[in-house]
Design brief:
- The complex is a heterotetramer.
- Chain A folds into 2 domains: 52 residues, ADC-like domains (N-terminal domain of TfIIb, Single Sheet), CATH 2.20.25.90; 66 residues, no CATH class.
- By secondary structure, chain A is an alpha+beta fold.
- Chain A has a 3-stranded antiparallel beta sheet. Chain A has a two-stranded antiparallel ribbon with strand order 4-5.
- Chain B is of the alpha+beta class.
- In chain B, strands 1, 2, 3, 4, 7, 8, 9, 10 and 11 form a 9-stranded mixed beta sheet that branches. A 4-stranded antiparallel beta sheet of chain B has the order 6-5-13-12, with no helix packed on it.
- In chain B, a hairpin with a 3-residue loop joins strand 9 and strand 10.
- In chain B, helix 8 crosses helix 12 and helix 8 crosses helix 13.
- Chain B is globular and about 65 Å long.
- Chain D is of the alpha/beta class.
- Chain D is globular, with a radius of gyration of 24 Å.
- The model of chain D has no long low-confidence stretch (mean pLDDT 88).
- Classes of the chains: A alpha+beta, B alpha+beta, C alpha/beta, D alpha/beta.
- The interface between B and D is medium-sized, with 19 and 21 residues.
Chain lengths: 133, 354, 283, 540
């Protein structure tokens, strides 16, 4: 049983909240009292942010389209297939044929890595995200 | 039990615990109980925490914890039971309850009063096994508040700053030592079992404790006229229009209910784990939500646009007074200043009494 | 330490659907019995009470008894399709399992009805809890005086419990009148809202107890009409429907001012409802 | 947020969220704050209780508008004439902050000349707001000592979005309402880390910290750090990538945690474009509408299952801490990216996200002092934070603007890309509701949130409702030139006559199949807020 201080993943306010962990599951969310934004309260989304984490419709394994259907595969198969396709399209299109969407929902580190990957490996500046929404 | 004039005390239930020995006392307790205590983290929030090591945390008996111990006895989300169906349609249920003997150390008077209120809620019309199991395993060591915080009004709610009953042990900070009141039987057992930590209180200590209590009572900065508000609500003199005015400002966050030590509304829902398995969860809910009363088919007997906060305030300040002869607001002040629309219980009381 | 708690009020008992009766396109009646034979023998309930029904992955909902305890061994719940759980129930077939816990709620006080003329007014699925009382009274007919039943539905094809209605209509000591809001081809009966049937009956307000159940709007108009006829508030009894989670007075979803419908109700007389903020009675 | 970059030099909130509660006058423009930014709304209510005056500029009667001292209920897409009108009033009333303009800004004369040519009566006509109200609002704002302007997507999601923002900046500078605590211009960022994603260079034209890819100096810096040659050509924007159709140069895509099928305008085009791709990989936590079209789907760890940082609307960089191990065989996106990169011959050997942050600090000057250990023991740091000793910056533009002098950029009214006509007589506006978030992949999988609101409704003004014979809960078919959807109507005074409003969260009513893909030429922001539609009642 523990409470882990983290940052809400819902909106741009960036509330500080504690995720309550019980037997390896997140079972609650509590507003930080002294956090400069949340200041002892969260909005309805923050108070219930733990609810989606263990939802049974979460993706839990890599999927690949086979015969038109998405079926579970191993990580290696999914990663190899992805690398192979990205390489092929990159090389066949003179680095013009790939596009990457980063995410305003992912962390800075992830966005940094993804743009670095796009620019260094895919050799294109075709990277963007939903910034305008 | 403390008498009003501080004299004629039965000396056998008053003890002194030196502050130097607190950590080793807690270390002892931890060998037989889980220990939950208010711990201050590096960011400065004080939270009731299941303590792993008494040496590695900073106990904070002064600042009010972010929440009461409600989440330990009545968690935000708990599994009531798991269920299973099989191919022939069979439908089976397996009840789940996790509870260990636990000492809750450093519980402020208001929060302890809230536990006493929850005891009633969870056993009056029906016995709630999940709460009562945890409660049965709970040892409450409370601490009186020498310095009420800025939003505290337990004096008005009559739930603090010190208590006369309900605790197993009650500590009063007397500088270099704690004055210890023994309440329920488990408290007595603890003192007997680890008696080398406890010296009988001297007459001087008793006087000082009483003086501390009197001084604390004088330190409240908020004037909250709870009795008067209750009287006005009882007399029916509060205009109905007040509810729509205040409800318009309610932004449906549920924070007031979740942070409140006596709010115990809950919802029950199923979580599918696989095609044939699932668990039934109980989770905190708030009467301020419109989904709280909405029925299948969308009919809603409560118009939350105009009544979102009516039930919450009236339940605390009127219905519980009618039923139990006391309000269920314990004056902890946690909801004060946190409302997104500026509608907290002190605002409400002010509005009703003016 | 994980262990089973004895007498866990939240734990449903498995039950099996013995028989399924399609009342109309929206309502089905489920005749049920507990899987535990011993429990079946000791299980009792009273008209007006309800059970919390569980369906896997769908949670629970409160459903009133539509059967009468005066016919031992029958436990029927009549369900109208309204939300997730009731829709799932309608998908079930005979032999399927559901979970049940209860009975809950304050029932109709059958003792208080003794020696009275009884006027039942129901709309749609609202006849379900009243059917429990009506059949109870018929099984104990010597205890009660005249029985009058007024039942309305939207369309003739929406009339539920038609087998019962036929029986009731055939009884010499019972008046059972039907009405529909909107006639369909083949309907020769009365058309109009249920209050229009009041013109067809005579009521002695001093010796009559009225029992009312139906949609909120109907309850409002019928209660007003009954009061106008001079029936005392204490003798106007209705049963209310609310969103419920625990069924035992803790979760507070069914709050109605200082009352909780699950324990203080669902049966209330009009005197109890006066001075309360009751959605059904607000104009 | 292009508009603020050109005027102030930095496209972010100039204040901290907490400062708003101390403001004397608050202008809220194009933001349904109580629904979208509750913590900001909370500060606004606190400010109101402290005696602040509130001006709301919104075509809809939002909840905040109920509490406004002045509600300027403009016609959709007429923000520029309204704000220009307010500036003209400030000019006429002699409320211009001359000293501020003299010391801190440039190009004021161009603005003034433009303002002098304005006809205020005509502005009242265009905006539909009485001159007295415009004048009162302008004076209230200009006379205040501490005044903030909060705006959101109602300003930016227009064909003239950049112009709208520039006009707001003009107004603030003219009144001298920048550079101070409790005073400034505050764009409220929609998503939790939209600020960070921009800061990190997840944009076609810039590296982290907005260093342009076509600036040789900047490029060289990153080439040295990353050890490879980098393309100097700015890339394609999201709209170019997702709306190209079969002729799009893009043949393969990698999408991390976005759901453009539901979130982008003219969504059927996105669907079509993505289906045409030779290869599509999506990494997400749920099987979103976009993931359903993919060739490969990676199960990503949620925010509770990984470590990193988010940057909020007030530029505060904060820790995201791992609470539980990834569920199932999920992996954090960092690991996924590193695994693919390694397979393509460019191993990225980071031991932790803290190490990634060290590299960011090295390359992005505004994040220069951001290290996990510092963020770990505090409530985060607000950029710019130049080095390890720097305490962060609660409010921007003190003493000098990020670009040096603040630049006035005169703007003129530009009609929305599509206006109502005989065939499509109504204006459709879109937005969000409180209980749902974005394309609702997370919120709809949350029991409580979904209970509170799980269906899209079309808000219709009572006047229109009467003429279409529509009542609340009736089903209506809403069509534009691009598609049609079916949803429930709700009759409410919240929308003005001639307008309808709905939300974009729900896949059952994918409103973006109706919206236009005209966009602001500078920011490339699509015009979600105005398009022409027609409404028909569905009779059952």
């Amino acid at each position: 049983m523990k409470d882990v201080l983290t940052t809400c993943a819902y909106c741009g306010c960036g509330c500080g909240l504690y995720l309550h962990v019980e037997n390896g599951k997140v079972t609650g969310s509590m507003a930080s009292r002294n956090h400069p934004v949340s200041h002892h309260n969260l909005c309805v989304k923050g108070w219930h942010i733990h609810e989606f984490i263990h939802n049974s419709s979460r993706l839990t394994q890599p999927l690949m389209r086979k015969n038109g259907k998405l079926v579970p595969v191993s990580w290696d198969e999914a990663l190899d297939f992805t690398a192979e396709n990205l390489r092929r399209i990159r090389d066949n299109t003179n680095c013009q044929g790939l596009g990457v969407l980063a995410s305003a929902k992912c962390t800075n580190e992830e966005n940094y890595l993804l743009q670095k990957f796009t620019r260094t490996v895919l050799k294109t500046n075709n990277i963007d995200h939903c910034a305008r929404l | 039990m403390r008498s009003k004039d501080g004299k004629n005390n039965n000396m056998t239930d008053k003890f002194i615990l030196k502050k130097d020995h607190l950590v080793s006392f807690l270390r002892r307790l931890k060998k037989e109980y889980h220990l939950v205590a208010p711990v201050k983290n590096i960011q400065g929030d004080t939270m009731f925490t299941l303590v792993d090591s008494v040496d590695e945390v900073e106990f904070d008996l002064v600042n009010q914890a972010v929440t009461s111990i409600k989440p330990f006895l009545f968690p935000q989300q708990e599994t009531l039971f798991t269920y299973e169906t099989s191919a022939n349609g069979d439908y089976r249920f397996d009840s789940v309850c996790n509870s260990q003997p636990t000492v809750y150390f450093g519980v402020h008077s208001c929060d302890l009063s809230a536990v006493l209120y929850m005891d009633v809620t969870f056993s009056l019309t029906a016995r709630d096994p999940y709460y009562l199991e945890k409660r049965k395993n709970a040892v409450l060591i409370s601490v009186g508040c020498n310095e009420p915080s800025e939003n505290c009004f337990c004096n008005a709610a009559k739930t603090g700053p010190f208590l006369e009953y309900g605790f197993d042990l009650q500590l009063t900070d007397l500088g270099n030592r704690f004055f210890v009141d023994v309440g329920r039987a488990t408290g007595q057992e603890i003192v007997s079992k680890w008696q080398h930590f406890f010296a009988p209180a001297e007459e001087e200590d008793v006087k000082l404790q009483y003086q501390t209590y009197l001084e604390a009572r004088g330190k409240f900065t908020r004037q909250v006229h709870m009795d008067q508000a209750i009287k006005r609500l009882k007399s029916g003199k509060v205009p109905e229009s007040i509810w729509s005015e205040l409800s318009l400002r309610c932004q449906d966050c549920s924070g007031c209910a979740y942070i409140c030590p006596t709010c115990t509304c809950f919802s029950i829902s199923d979580r599918k784990l696989s095609e044939h398995e699932g668990e039934r969860l109980r989770s905190w809910d708030a009467c301020t939500f419109s989904g709280f009363t909405r029925m299948a088919g969308d009919h809603n007997p409560v118009d939350h646009r105009t009544q979102a906060i009516r039930q919450r305030f009236l339940h605390k300040m009127l219905y519980d007074v009618q039923k139990h002869n006391r309000p269920s607001c314990i004056g902890c002040g946690r909801c004060v200043g946190i409302c997104f629309g500026g509608v907290d219980i002190i605002r409400f009381i002010d509005l009703v009494t003016n | 330490m994980i262990h089973t708690i004895n007498q866990n009020i939240y734990l449903p008992r498995p039950a099996i659907i013995k028989e399924l009766i399609v009342e109309n396109s929206q309502i089905k009646t489920f005749d049920l019995s507990f899987v535990d034979e011993e429990y079946n023998k000791t299980f009792t309930y009273a008209p007006g009470q309800f059970m919390m029904v569980s369906i896997p992955h769908c949670g629970e909902a409160p459903i009133s008894f539509s059967s009468t305890p005066s016919r031992p061994g029958t436990l029927s719940l009549s369900v109208r399709k309204a939300g997730t759980l009731t829709n799932a129930m309608h998908e079930l077939t005979e032999g399927a399992f559901i979970g049940l816990r209860g009975p809950y709620g304050t029932p109709f006080s059958m003792d208080a009805l003794k020696g009275k003329n009884l006027l039942f007014v129901a709309g749609g699925i609202g006849l379900a809890p009243l059917r429990s009382v009506i059949n109870y009274c018929m099984d104990n007919e010597k205890d009660f005086r005249e029985i009058t039943i007024l039942y309305g539905s939207r369309l003739p094809s929406d009339l539920a419990f038609t087998a019962d209605l036929d029986l009731w209509q055939k009884r010499p000591d019972t008046t059972c009148l039907l009405t529909v809001d909107q006639a369909e081809p083949g309907w020769n009966g009365h058309t109009g809202v249920v209050t229009t049937l009041f013109d067809k009956i005579t009521v002695d307000p001093s010796s009559t107890v009225a029992l009312v159940c139906g949609p909120p709007l109907m309850i409002r108009f019928v209660l007003a009409e009954l009061s106008r006829m001079g029936i005392q508030d204490e003798d106007i009894i209705t049963t209310l429907e609310r969103h419920m989670k625990c069924g035992v007075g803790i979760c507070r979803h069914c709050h109605m001012d200082n009352k909780l419908v699950c324990v203080d109700g669902p049966v209330f007389n009009r005197a109890e409802l006066r001075n309360l903020e009751v959605a059904e009675l607000l104009t | 947020m292009t508009g603020l970059a050109t005027t102030f030099g930095s496209g972010a909130m100039t204040n901290s969220i907490n400062e708003i509660e101390q403001a004397e006058v608050i202008i809220v423009s194009g933001s349904n704050t109580t629904e979208a930014h509750p913590q900001v709304a909370r500060r606004i209510f606190d400010a109101l209780d402290n005696g602040a005056k509130l001006i709301v500029i919104d075509p809809r009667r939002t909840l905040l508008a109920e509490f406004a001292h002045i509600h300027l209920d403009i016609k959709g897409g007429t923000d520029i004439p309204l704000l220009n009108g307010m500036m003209r009033v400030i000019l006429d009333e002699n409320l211009v902050d001359d000293l501020f303009i003299e010391m801190r800004t440039e190009n004021y004369h161009a603005l003034r000349d433009m303002l002098f040519r304005l006809d205020l009566n005509k502005i009242a006509d265009i905006t539909g707001v009485a001159l007295e109200k415009i004048s009162a609002a302008a004076q209230l704002y200009a006379r205040a000592q501490k005044a903030v302007i909060c705006y959101c997507l109602g300003i930016t999601q227009h064909v003239c979005g950049t112009g709208n923002v520039e006009t707001i900046a003009n107004l603030a500078m003219m009144a001298g309402h920048v550079e101070k605590e409790f005073t400034g211009v505050d764009p409220l960022r929609g998503q939790n880390n939209v600020q960070g994603a921009c800061d990190m260079g997840a944009l076609p034209g810039v590296f982290p910290s907005y260093q342009a890819v076509n600036n040789p100096e900047h490029r060289e810096k990153f080439e040295r750090a990353w050890g490879v040659e980098l393309s100097p050509v700015p890339g394609l924007t999201l709209m170019h990538m997702t709306h190209g159709g079969p002729k799009s140069p893009v043949r393969g895509m990698f999408i991390m945690g976005e759901n453009p099928v539901l979130s982008e305008p003219k969504a059927n085009k996105v669907d079509q474009t993505l289906k045409e791709l030779e290869f599509l990989a999506v990494s997400d936590i749920f099987l979103s509408e976009t993931a359903q079209l993919a060739h490969v789907v990676f199960p990503a760890a949620s925010f509770a299952e990984k470590t990193g940082t988010f940057t909020n609307s007030e530029r505060r960089v904060q820790m995201v801490r791992q609470a539980i191990p990834p569920i199932g065989s999920c992996r954090p996106d960092c690991e996924i990216i590193m695994s693919i990169s390694e397979r393509l011959g460019y191993p990225m050997d980071y031991e932790s996200t803290a190490e990634i942050m060290e590299e960011i600090a090295l390359l992005a000057p505004t994040y220069g002092g951001m290290h996990h250990d510092r963020l770990e023991s505090s409530w985060g740091l607000q950029w710019p934070c130049w080095d390890r000793e720097h305490p962060g910056t609660p409010f921007l533009h003190k003493y000098y603007f990020s670009r040096g002098l603040g630049q006035f950029i005169p703007t003129t009214h530009q009609s929305p890309g599509e206006l109502p006509d005989d065939d499509y007589p109504l204006v459709l506006n879109t937005g969000m509701v409180y209980h749902q978030y974005r394309t609702a992949t997370m919120t709809r999988n949350s029991v409580t949130l979904n209970r509170e609101c799980n269906e899209a409704v079309l808000e219709v003004n009572p006047q229109d409702a009467a003429s279409y014979n529509i009542r609340t809960d009736d089903m209506v078919k809403l069509s534009s030139r691009r598609g049609s959807i079916t949803l429930k109507a709700q009759v409410t005074e919240q929308v003005g006559a001639g307008s309808v409003y709905t939300t974009f969260h729900f896949t059952e009513a994918p409103i973006n199949e109706l919206t236009v893909d005209t966009k602001d030429p500078k920011s490339k922001c699509p015009e979600f807020k105005v398009c022409a539609v027609k409404m028909e009642k569905i009779t059952t």
